[in-house]
Specification:
Layout (H helix, E strand, L loop, with lengths): L10 E3 L12 H9 L4 E8 L5 E3 L11 H5 L12 H4 L20 H10 L3 E6 L6 H15 L8 E4 L2 H10 L5 E5 L6 H7 L4 E5 L5 H9 L3 E5 L4 H10 L3 E4 L10
Parallel strand pairs: 1-9, 2-4, 4-5, 5-6, 6-7, 7-8, 8-9
Antiparallel strand pairs: 2-3
Helix pairs in contact: 5-6
C-alpha cells in the first residue's frame, strides 16, 4: 500500500524546544522557531472546566509552582483545577530564573501562534487518567475549529487508543498517529483500526522489519526522542519519515 502525500516537515521540536526552555510553553515554541524549526510537538490535557492546555505530567509539581501557589491542601492533579487557577501558575521558574513567570499556555493560544506563523503541530493527547475519551474528543473538536480552512491540519497522537478513537469519532478528517513505547501484540492492527496515518515510536523500536511492516500498511514512521547523530543516521538509513528531538541546537531542520 502506498502512503498518502506527507505534508509535515521531517524535523519536529519536542515540547517546543526540548530542554533548552521550559517545556510546553510559548517561550519554548519561540526558541524552537528561532533555531529554524517549523513543526512542534506538545502535550494537551483538559482543565477541570474543560479548557485544553499544555502540560505533560498528570501532576503539577515538576514543571510549575502549582503545589505552592494553589495551597497545601489543594490537589496536585492538574486536571482537578479550573483554567482560571491554572493560568496563573508559574511554569518557567523551575527551568531557570530567565523564564520566571512564564505561564502555562492554553491550547488555543498555541494554535494561534502556530497558525499565524505557518507552523505545524504534533499534538499528543495526554489525558488525566480516567478522562481518555473525553480528552480525545475535546482536543479533536478544538483542533478542528481552530484549524478550520487551514491547508494542513495538526497531527493528533496518543499512547491511548481510547483517546484516538474518541478523536476519530468526533473529527474523522483530522490525521491521527498511534504512539508506542513497545511493540505490543497487535500494534499495527490497532493503528490500522484507528485509521492512523502514522506510527510514532520510541526510536529503538524501528528496525528494517518494523519499518517495512509499517510502510507496507501505508503508514509513516516517526521517532521520539532522538538526540544524537548516530541515531539520526540509523533512522535516515532505515527510511523513516519524522524525527522528534530535544536538540534543536544540534540539528538544523533542513527538511
Amino acid at each position: 500500500m502506498t502512503a498518502s502525500p506527507w505534508p509535515y516537515p521531517r524535523w519536529i521540536a519536542h515540547r517546543g524546544a526540548g530542554k533548552l526552555a521550559p517545556e510546553n510553553t510559548l517561550a519554548a515554541f519561540r526558541l524552537g522557531a528561532s533555531h529554524g524549526y517549523r513543526m512542534f510537538e506538545c502535550d494537551v490535557k483538559l482543565s477541570a472546566d474543560g479548557v485544553p492546555f499544555l502540560l505533560h505530567d498528570a501532576t503539577l509539581e515538576r514543571t510549575s509552582n502549582g503545589p505552592k501557589q494553589l495551597g497545601g491542601d489543594a490537589s496536585n492533579i492538574a486536571g482537578d483545577h479550573p483554567w482560571a487557577a491554572l493560568s496563573q501558575l508559574d511554569a518557567g521558574s523551575w527551568h531557570c530564573a530567565a523564564y520566571a513567570g512564564e505561564p502555562l499556555p492554553s491550547f488555543e493560544n498555541i494554535a494561534h501562534y502556530c497558525l499565524q506563523n505557518d507552523f505545524f503541530l504534533d499534538i499528543e493527547i495526554k489525558p488525566t487518567p480516567g478522562l481518555e475519551r473525553i480528552t480525545g474528543e475535546a482536543v479533536a473538536q478544538h483542533a478542528a475549529r481552530l484549524w478550520q480552512g487551514a491547508d494542513v491540519p495538526p497531527l493528533l497522537t496518543s499512547f491511548r487508543p481510547e483517546s484516538l478513537q474518541a478523536a476519530r469519532d468526533a473529527q474523522p478528517l483530522l490525521p491521527r498517529a498511534l504512539l508506542l513505547d513497545t511493540l505490543w501484540n497487535g500494534w499495527l492492527e490497532a493503528a490500522q483500526s484507528l485509521g492512523c496515518v502514522a506510527l510514532v515510536c520510541k526510536h529503538r523500536l524501528w528496525d528494517a522489519t518494523s519499518v517495512a511492516q509499517t510502510k507496507a500498511a501505508g503508514l509513516r514512521c516517526l521517532s521520539y526522542t532522538v538526540n544524537d547523530e548516530p541515531t539520526v543516521k540509523r533512522l535516515t538509513d532505515l527510511g523513516t519519515d519524522g524525527i522528534i528531538t530535544d536538540r534543536v541546537d544540534l540539528f538544523a531542520p533542513t527538511a
